[in-house]
C-alpha cells in the first residue's frame, strides 16, 4: 500500500486535542527479527516469552482497560497472532499489512500512518513497540500527556550503551535535541518506542512518511523542529529485545511476575537437578540430572545429564550429556555427546 494517498482525497482532521474520547493504542509487531534467528525464523518476536508470557501480552496488560488497541503485524505471522488473541481475554484489533518478507514491510511509521488512515482514527494515539518490555504501567505515562507529543526515555546510564539507540537531551520536561545512534552521545537518555502522538500532529506524520517510512526516531527529530515535544523519563526497567543478549538480559533482569511454582508448571524433574540464577522452563519439558543457570527453555524439551548456562533453548530440543553456554539452540535440535549430535548448533 502506498503512502501518497493521505492528501487530495478530502481527508480532514479536527486539529484540536481530543476531548471526551479515549486515546487509542497502536502496537507495532510487523518486524522479522533476523538478528534473533533461528529463534524467530517461524515465530514473531513480540510472541517470545519473558517470564512465561509473550512480550506483547505484557504490553497489553499494562494498558488501561478502556483503551482500544490496534496491533499491526504482517501476513507471515497472521495465524500466530490470531491464536495469541484467542487466549488473551481482552479485545485487540489485529491489522495485517501486505508483507510476507522484510523487503515488503511498510516500515514502522508507514504502519502507524496506514492504521490511523485505514481505521479512521480521529483520536490521539499511544504508539508502542511490540518488542519492547516496559516495567512501568502506561497509566503513569498517560498522566503526563498534555496534548503535545510525548515520548518515553530511559536513562541507560552509560554513553557507550546509549550510542546504540536514539539519544535525547531535555530541559525540564521538554526535549531539546535528538540524535539517532550518535558516536558521541550528549546524554544517557535513550528513546524507547513509547510515544503519544496527538491528532493535530497527524498531518505532519502523513507528510513525513512520504520520504521516511521506517525510523520513528527520525520522526521525533522532525517533530522537535515543528512542535513542542515533551518527555517522560522512566527509572524502571526497559528492554528493546533485538538480539540474543538483549532477550536474555531482559529475562534475567525482569522481576518475576509469576509464582515460583508457575515457572515450572508442567515440567518433569527427574533425579538430581541444580537450578541457579533465573531459569524459566516451559510445559512438557523433562529435566534429568542436569545443571541449569540463567536459561530460557521452551516447551517439550528433554535435557539429560547436561550443564546449560546462559542459553535460550527453543521448542522440542533434546540435549544429552553436553555442556552448552551462551547460545540459542534451534528448534528440534538433537544435541548429544560424541558422534550422536544430529543437528549442528549455529
Automatic annotation (TrEMBL):
<protein>
    <submittedName>
        <fullName>NDP-sugar synthase</fullName>
    </submittedName>
</protein>
<dbReference type="InterPro" id="IPR029044">
    <property type="entry name" value="Nucleotide-diphossugar_trans"/>
</dbReference>
<dbReference type="Pfam" id="PF00483">
    <property type="entry name" value="NTP_transferase"/>
</dbReference>
<feature type="domain" description="Nucleotidyl transferase">
    <location>
        <begin position="24"/>
        <end position="255"/>
    </location>
</feature>
<dbReference type="InterPro" id="IPR005835">
    <property type="entry name" value="NTP_transferase_dom"/>
</dbReference>
Amino acid at each position: 500500500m502506498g503512502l501518497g494517498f493521505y492528501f487530495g482525497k478530502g481527508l480532514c482532521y479536527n486539529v484540536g486535542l481530543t476531548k471526551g474520547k479515549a486515546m487509542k493504542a497502536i502496537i507495532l509487531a510487523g518486524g522479522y527479527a533476523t538478528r534473533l534467528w533461528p529463534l524467530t525464523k517461524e515465530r514473531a518476536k513480540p510472541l517470545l516469552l519473558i517470564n512465561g508470557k509473550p512480550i506483547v501480552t505484557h504490553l497489553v496488560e499494562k494498558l488501561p482497560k478502556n483503551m482500544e488497541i490496534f496491533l499491526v503485524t504482517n501476513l507471515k505471522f497472521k495465524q500466530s497472532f490470531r491464536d495469541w488473541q484467542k487466549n488473551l481475554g481482552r479485545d485487540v484489533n489485529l491489522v495485517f499489512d501486505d508483507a510476507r518478507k522484510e523487503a515488503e514491510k511498510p516500515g514502522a511509521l508507514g504502519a502507524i500512518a496506514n492504521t490511523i488512515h485505514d481505521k479512521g482514527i480521529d483520536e490521539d494515539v499511544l504508539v508502542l513497540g511490540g518488542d519492547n518490555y516496559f516495567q512501568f504501567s502506561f497509566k503513569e505515562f498517560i498522566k503526563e500527556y498534555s496534548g503535545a507529543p510525548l515520548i518515553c526515555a530511559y536513562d541507560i546510564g552509560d554513553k557507550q550503551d546509549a550510542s546504540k539507540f536514539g539519544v535525547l537531551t531535555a530541559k525540564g520536561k521538554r526535549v531539546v535535541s535528538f540524535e539517532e545512534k550518535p558516536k558521541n552521545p550528549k546524554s544517557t537518555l535513550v528513546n524507547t518506542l513509547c510515544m503519544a502522538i496527538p491528532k493535530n500532529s497527524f498531518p505532519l506524520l502523513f507528510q513525513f512518511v512520504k520520504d521516511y517510512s521506517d525510523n520513528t526516531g527520525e520522526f521525533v527529530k522532525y517533530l522537535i523542529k515543528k512542535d513542542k515535544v515533551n518527555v517522560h523519563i522512566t527509572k524502571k526497567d526497559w528492554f528493546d529485545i533485538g538480539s540474543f543478549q538483549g532477550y536474555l538480559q531482559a529475562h534475567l533482569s525482569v522481576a518475576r511476575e509469576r509464582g515460583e511454582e508457575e515457572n515450572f508448571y508442567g515440567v518433569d524433574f527427574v533425579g538430581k537437578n541444580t537450578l541457579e540464577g533465573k531459569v524459566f522452563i516451559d510445559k512438557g519439558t523433562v529435566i534429568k540430572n542436569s545443571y541449569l543457570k540463567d536459561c530460557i527453555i521452551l516447551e517439550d524439551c528433554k535435557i539429560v545429564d547436561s550443564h546449560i548456562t546462559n542459553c535460550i533453548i527453543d521448542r522440542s530440543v533434546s540435549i544429552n550429556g553436553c555442556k552448552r553456554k551462551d547460545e540459542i539452540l534451534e528448534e528440534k535440535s538433537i544435541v548429544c555427546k560424541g558422534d550422536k549430535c544430529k543437528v549442528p548448533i549455529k
